[in-house]
C-alpha cells in the first residue's frame, strides 16, 4: 500500500514537474537555434555584411578567383580575428563607399542649400564608450571619424565644420561630397518650388514657396503631412555585431533626410536613438524618421527590454508599438539582437511600407541572408 501510495505520489509529482521540464526543454531548444557571432544590419545592404571570401569557400580559390578584397566586410572581419568595433566600422564604411541607395555616404540627400552632410556613430558595449559625428562636411568616412572620437578624445559627439577639422587632423582627406546626382536632385527640388520641405508655421507658405521663411505675426498650427515611404526609400545603415564571447558593438551611418534644413541632426548619431550596445544584454539599431524616433530612444529601450529577458523580436515590436501611440503614421523600423545570438526586427506599417528587409550573418547561415518581417 505504501509503495502504491508512493507510486501514486510520484505520479502526481511527475504530472507537476513534467510541464516545467517541457518548458525547460523548449527554452533549451530555442537557445540552441541561436549562435554566435552574429552580424545584423538594417535593409538589404548585402555588401556591408558579406564575407568577402573567395569562391569555393574560405581558404579555397574557385575558378577565376583573383585576390580577396583588401578591406573585408563585417562578417569577414570577425572571421579574420578583428574586433566587434572593427566589424561595425568596416560594415558601415562599405555602405559609405557604395553610397547605399543614395541615403548613406557622399553624393546623396542634399540639404536646402544643396550640400550633403553626414551623421554617424559607433558604440562599444563593453566600455559603453560612444563616438559620434553630426553635420559632418567634406569628409566621406563618417563612421571612421566617429571611431576616432572614441580613440583620441574624451568626448562623445562632435558636430559641423569643427568635426570636419578634427577629421582632417586625424588624417582623413578633405573632399567634396557633392556629385552630379546630388546636384540634379537639388535642381529638381528647386524647380518644384522646394517641395517637400521641413518648414511649418512660416511665411511665405512653405507648401508653395522656397522662402526665405520667417515667423508670422500669428502662428496657425497645421496638421503635419506624412510622406509615403516604400521599401526603396531607405535612409540609414544600422549595424549590430555580437562576437563569439558575447561582446556587443553597434553603429550607424547616414546622410540624413533629403532637403533637410541645414544644421538638422537626426537620430543616427545619438546614442540610444540610432543605435545602442551593451554587452550585458544586447544591441539594437533604428532606421526611419529620425526626427520622431529619436524622441523615444528606441534602441536603448529595445536593449532594456532584452535585458529583462524579452525575445529580440518582441523587444523590437514593443518599441514600435510605443512610438505608434504618439505618432501612428511614422516611418521606421528597429533591429535587435541579444547576447545569445537571437535576433529580430519590427517596423511600423504605413502606406507604401508594409515589410522591412534586413541582413543577418551567423554560423547557422551559409552566407549573409536577407530576412523580411511584416510591419505591425
Your description of this structure?
- The protein is α+β, with helices and mostly antiparallel strands and 376 residues long.
- It has helices spanning 2-32, 46-49, 74-79, 84-98, 142-152, 160-169, 180-191, 290-293, 298-307, 312-324; strands spanning 38-42, 118-124, 130-136, 157-159, 237-242, 248-254, 275-278, 282-288, 332-338, 343-347, 355-361, 369-374.
- The strands form two sheets. Strands 4-3-2-6-5-1-11-12 form an eight-stranded mixed sheet.
- The chain is globular.
- The model is unreliable at 1-32, 52-70 and 226-233 (pLDDT under 50).
Secondary structure layout:
Blueprint: H1 2-32, E1 38-42, H2 46-49, H3 74-79, H4 84-98, E2 118-124, E3 130-136, H5 142-152, E4 157-159, H6 160-169, H7 180-191, E5 237-242, E6 248-254, E7 275-278, E8 282-288, H8 290-293, H9 298-307, H10 312-324, E9 332-338, E10 343-347, E11 355-361, E12 369-374
Parallel strand pairs: 3-4
Antiparallel strand pairs: 1-5, 1-11, 2-3, 2-6, 5-6, 7-8, 8-9, 9-10, 11-12
- What characteristic shape results from the CA principal axes? globular
Parts with pLDDT < 50 across at least 5 consecutive residues: 1-32, 52-70, 226-233
**What is the string of SSEs from the N terminus onward?**
HEHHHEEHEHHEEEEHHHEEEE
Count of individual helical segments: 10
Judged by helices, strands and strand pairing, the structural class is: alpha+beta
Task: State the share of residues found in helices, binned by percent.
Answer: 25-40%
- Distance from N terminus to C terminus (CA atoms, Å) equals 59 Å
Arithmetic mean of pLDDT: 85
Which strand order spans the largest sheet, edge to edge or round the barrel? 4-3-2-6-5-1-11-12
> Strand share of the residues?
15-25%
Would you count the extended β strands for me?
12
Oligomeric composition of the shown chains: single chain
The main pleated sheet reads as: 8 strands, mixed
Amino acid at each position: 500500500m505504501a509503495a502504491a501510495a508512493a507510486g501514486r505520489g510520484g505520479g502526481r509529482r511527475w504530472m507537476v514537474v513534467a510541464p516545467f521540464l517541457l518548458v525547460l526543454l523548449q527554452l533549451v531548444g530555442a537557445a540552441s537555434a541561436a549562435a554566435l557571432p552574429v552580424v545584423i544590419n538594417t535593409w538589404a545592404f548585402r555588401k556591408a555584411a558579406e564575407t568577402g571570401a573567395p569562391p569555393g569557400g574560405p581558404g579555397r580559390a574557385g575558378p577565376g578567383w583573383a585576390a580577396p578584397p583588401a578591406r573585408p566586410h563585417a562578417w569577414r572581419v570577425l572571421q579574420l580575428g578583428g574586433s566587434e568595433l572593427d566589424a561595425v566600422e568596416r560594415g558601415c564604411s562599405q555602405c559609405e563607399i557604395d553610397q547605399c541607395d543614395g541615403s548613406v555616404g557622399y553624393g546623396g540627400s542634399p540639404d536646402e542649400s544643396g550640400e550633403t552632410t553626414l551623421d554617424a556613430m559607433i558604440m562599444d558595449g563593453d566600455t559603453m564608450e560612444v563616438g559620434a559625428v553630426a553635420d559632418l562636411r567634406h569628409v566621406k568616412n563618417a563612421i571612421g571619424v566617429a571611431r576616432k572620437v572614441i580613440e583620441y578624445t574624451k568626448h562623445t559627439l562632435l558636430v559641423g565644420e569643427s568635426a570636419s577639422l578634427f577629421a582632417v587632423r586625424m588624417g582623413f582627406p578633405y573632399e567634396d561630397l557633392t556629385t552630379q546626382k546630388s546636384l540634379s536632385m537639388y535642381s529638381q527640388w528647386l524647380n518644384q518650388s522646394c517641395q517637400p520641405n521641413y518648414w511649418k508655421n512660416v511665411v511665405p507658405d512653405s507648401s508653395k514657396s522656397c522662402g526665405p521663411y520667417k515667423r508670422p505675426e500669428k502662428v496657425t498650427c497645421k496638421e503635419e503631412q506624412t510622406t509615403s515611404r516604400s521599401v526603396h526609400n531607405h535612409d540609414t545603415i544600422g549595424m549590430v555585431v555580437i562576437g563569439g564571447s558575447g561582446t556587443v558593438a553597434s553603429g550607424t551611418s547616414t546622410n540624413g533626410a533629403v532637403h533637410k534644413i541645414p544644421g538638422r541632426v537626426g537620430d543616427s548619431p545619438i546614442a540610444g536613438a540610432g543605435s545602442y550596445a551593451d554587452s550585458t544584454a544586447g544591441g539594437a539599431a533604428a532606421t526611419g524618421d529620425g526626427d520622431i524616433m529619436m524622441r523615444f530612444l528606441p534602441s536603448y529601450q529595445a536593449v532594456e527590454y532584452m535585458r529583462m529577458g524579452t525575445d529580440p523580436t518582441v523587444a523590437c515590436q514593443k518599441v514600435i508599438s510605443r512610438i505608434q501611440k504618439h505618432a501612428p503614421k511614422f516611418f521606421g523600423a528597429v533591429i535587435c539582437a541579444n547576447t545569445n545570438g537571437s535576433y529580430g526586427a519590427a517596423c511600423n506599417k504605413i502606406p507604401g511600407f508594409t515589410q522591412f528587409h534586413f541582413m543577418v550573418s551567423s554560423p547557422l547561415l551559409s552566407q549573409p541572408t536577407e530576412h523580411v518581417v511584416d510591419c505591425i
